[in-house]
Amino acid sequence: MKKIVSLTLPFIIGFLTTSAHATENGGDSFALGAEGMMAGALPPPGVYLLNYYQNYHAGSFDNGPPNFHADVNALIPRLVWMTKQNYLGGQLGFYAAQPFVDLRLSAAGMSDSNSGLGDLIIGSMLGWHHGSHHWIGAVEGVLDTGKYDSATPAQPLVANIGKNYNTVRPIIAYTYAPQNGLDISTKLSYSFNTKNDDTQYKSGEYFAGDYSIGYKLNDHVKVAVEGYAFKQTESDEVNGDKIGMRGQVLAVGPAIQYQDKNWSLEAKYLKETNVENRPEGHTSYLKFVWAF
């Protein structure tokens, strides 16, 4: 049976108001919680199609606009190519993902909605295996290709799917999966953002990571407790001046996976807590993987 590939995938809400929040308007380009079980184990050479469906709902915004609500539905196909090439003892792979997003926002008596293509993600990675231990090192770029409109006095709330800035993100992931069925996995990243030239806003650098503690019940079914953490390490800047806003969030919830031959299906529900300067809500994922 082929191992199922896992790595990071982008999504998140984006909108514009006249207020400042940790990262621009509390959004980011990291798919918090998208990965979990076997996150550090890359598959054998071949081509793989990963399809993610995400629903995110937030009913409040810490230190943000009143009466805030956000509903996001995202479908994110991702193509992964694992080559036969090896560098530094690791297997070389490449990937690209293109989100399709439907976003509905309301805040402070205003509302807006939008749907279309989000920001394109491309990346390269190396994977290592040693017995029950698996590692991944990767670098990905999030390109400002998504649909974006500037806010105006007549329309101060804009449901933006694209971020209008680029991100470079180094990633490391690790999985410990012994024969007794245990699966302890984590994926850690650090994001560097460019400036949004339309707003002169530069979102601060941030750490983000997914985690999973799972157990294989039989040859097909695995259950886990999963979640994510986000912590902004650098203040945002407006016109080159630091404004001191930093965000954070933790999330936890159950997950289940069914795997059979060359495909798998995983579902999870994650609830956010310990939120600062960001939307607070819950997210659900369905992840389908097909190995050609």
Structural write-up:
- With 292 residues, this protein is mostly beta strands.
- The chain has one domain: Autotransporter beta-domain (Lipocalin, Beta Barrel), CATH 2.40.128.130.
- The chain has no helices and 19 strands.
- It has strands spanning 14-16, 46-61, 69-87, 90-97, 100-107, 110-117, 120-130, 133-143, 158-160, 167-176, 182-193, 201-202, 206-216, 221-232, 237-238, 241-242, 248-260, 263-276, 279-291.
- A twelve-stranded antiparallel barrel has the order 2-3-4-7-8-10-11-13-14-17-18-19.
- A hairpin with a 2-residue loop joins strand 5 and strand 6.
- The model is unreliable at 1-21 (pLDDT under 50).
- Keywords: Signal.
- Residues 1-22 form the signal peptide.
